[in-house]
Design brief:
Length: 207
């Protein structure tokens, strides 16, 4: 019975010590590397109308960053990521009147501002990036596939949870607004604008 009591007391002390160790911004400082995946709830449309078409799909990314402790509680971070998207919208039939829009690779750089609360780090973020997108059209006589690289701006919020001193879990929401562009088609060129609501979950390792 004494052994059980001693073991229980040791567990409580260890848990309390861990929580105390992670009660300030300094414990979040340093470099980290991670991966995340999730889903894009997006849309595209013409800049000249309010009509939009849904463009949804899975998203995957590798990310790396560095956190700075600016006070006892505040954490300022810089982060970059490389991602690939499966978002697309297809209409029509191949060989007839057909169109397919895709979001493909993207790179992103953003700043994060967080507030350390024990093992938790709620944060807000904002930044910009580049997104590769394609638009393919075809009719009975011809087909055209055009690729563009668009600038986008992003803003969001999330929550980091420190499982250990090295391993952190993350849940995150980001809004992306893509710049207007023009794609070549089998007919007249098409102007496109778009945005995404992105939800992702991931993990990182701190160095």
């Amino acid at each position: 019975m004494k052994r059980i009591s001693i073991a229980a007391a040791a567990a409580v002390i260890a848990t309390t010590a861990f929580a105390q160790d992670n009660n300030n911004a300094q414990d979040w400082a340093g470099a980290y590397l991670g991966a995340k995946s999730g889903y894009n709830f997006g849309a595209i449309g013409s800049p000249e109308t309010s009509n939009e078409i849904e463009v949804n799909g899975a998203a995957f990314a590798l990310f790396a960053g560095y956190n700075f402790a600016t006070s006892d509680k505040l954490v300022l971070g810089l982060e970059t990521s490389l991602g690939y998207n499966l978002s697309k919208k297809t209409e029509g039939t191949v060989g007839a009147h057909y169109s397919q829009f895709k979001r493909l690779f993207d790179v992103e750089a953003k700043a994060r501002l967080g507030y350390a609360v024990d093992r938790f780090l709620p944060f807000a973020s904002a930044g910009f990036g580049l997104s590769q997108q394609s638009f393919e059209t075809s009719d009975v006589a011809s087909s055209v596939k055009d690729k563009k690289t668009l600038v986008f701006f992003t803003a969001g919020a999330g929550l980091d949870y420190q499982v250990t001193n090295k391993v952190t879990l993350r849940g995150e929401y980001d809004y992306r607004h893509y710049g207007e562009t023009k794609f070549k088609t089998t007919g007249d060129d098409t102007k496109v604008k778009g945005h995404d609501h992105r939800v992702t979950f991931g993990a990182s390792y701190s160095f």
